[in-house]
Amino acid sequence: MNKRLVILGAGGHGRAVADAALKMGYRTIVFLDDRAAGRCIGFPIAGPLDRAEALRDGETDFVIALGDNRLRRRVAMGHDLPWARIVHPSAQISPFAELGAGTVVLAGAAVNVCARVGRHCIVNTGAVVEHDNMLEDFAQVAPRAALGGSVRVGALAQIGIGAVVKNNVAVGMGCVIGAGAVVVKSTEPGGVYVGVPAWRREKGAAG
Ligand SMILES: CC(C)(COP(=O)(O)OP(=O)(O)OC[C@H]1O[C@@H](n2cnc3c(N)ncnc32)[C@H](O)[C@@H]1OP(=O)(O)O)[C@@H](O)C(=O)NCCC(=O)NCCS
Predict the structure, then answer these.
(1) pTM of the complete model
(2) Any idea which residues are catalytic in this one (predicted)?
(3) What confidence tens digit (pLDDT) does each residue in 127-171 have?
(4) Both 57 and 116 in a single domain?
(5) Which of 21, 54, 77 is the last residue of a domain?
(6) CATH number at residue 18
(7) Ligand 1 atom at shortest distance from the alpha carbon of 205
(8) Whose CA is nearest to atom 36 of ligand 1?
(9) What percent of the chain has pLDDT over 90?
């Protein structure tokens, strides 16, 4: 691959995305960031996010590497760019799974047969997205979280680090599932759930 990747966001997730992209064979990386300048892991930060369109050419892909789901959605809605799928070479993606444009799958993650992952999702390091899962756009599965078979994750939902979601459960849109939680029943949209088994901590906190 002789392409350049522009990464929108030069924070920790941006660096992880760059690392995966280089291992995929991207020739070089350019970051954009509203708050940082200079260089990031040796690659230039070429300006704020709204410079993205100016960097468009036939040999450049783009990806949004902002861990905040709502911010990622806002940036995606504001730009019409060729969004790349970034998949670390050590991730296991079934040939019968689907990944939407702009989605990132990091090292050691698994996306199993007939899973469908929407646009601009994050499947983070070592996460497991089992067979027949459906992740809607802008959802995120944190490192080492595991989703059993036929789980549905609503748009903008966040599954916390090391959390477990039992098979056939639906996680509502915009839910936040806390680190280490075990979700055994479907969750209401926008709720924050923690604990084992997970309970709703409060209403409306997921914004
Ligand atoms: C659940 C979560 C969203 C709550 O965040 P918050 O609203 O900022 O909560 P706070 O840190 O203020 O903690 C509030 C209370 O909830 C408890 N709590 C926080 N996270 C918890 C969790 N995962 N499980 C159980 N209890 C938790 C705290 O101990 C605290 O209890 P207290 O009021 O008795 O002292 C957050 O703690 C979390 O788990 N986020 C997931 C992070 C993650 O996976 N990131 C991955 C990045 S790659």
Answers:
(1) 0.96
(2) 131 (proton acceptor)
(3) 999 999 999 999 999 999 999 999 999 999 999 999 999 999 999
(4) no
(5) 77
(6) 3.40.50.20
(7) 7
(8) 178
(9) 96
Mutate to test the pocket of ligand 1, among 68, 194, 196, 199 (most ligand atoms within 8 A of CB): 194
- Identify the domain containing residue 113 by its residue range: 86-196
Q: Which residues pair with 4 in a beta bridge?
A: 28, 60
> Which of 77, 98, 127 is the endpoint of a domain?
77
Same domain? 69 vs 94: no
pLDDT band at 205 (very low <50, low <70, confident <90, very high): very low
The answer to whether 33 is annotated as binding is yes
137 appears as a binding residue in the annotation = no
Whether 161 lines ligand 1, by a CB cut-off of 6 Å, is yes
Whether 8 maps to a domain, the answer reads yes
88 counts as catalytic: no
Torsion of CA 15, 93, 127, 39, to 10 degrees: 0
Nearest alpha carbon, ligand 1 atom 17: 194
Domain count, the chain: 2
Q: Cβ neighbours of residue 4 under 8 Å, at least 6 residues apart? A: 26, 27, 28, 29, 30, 59, 60, 61
Residue 71, domain member (yes or no): yes
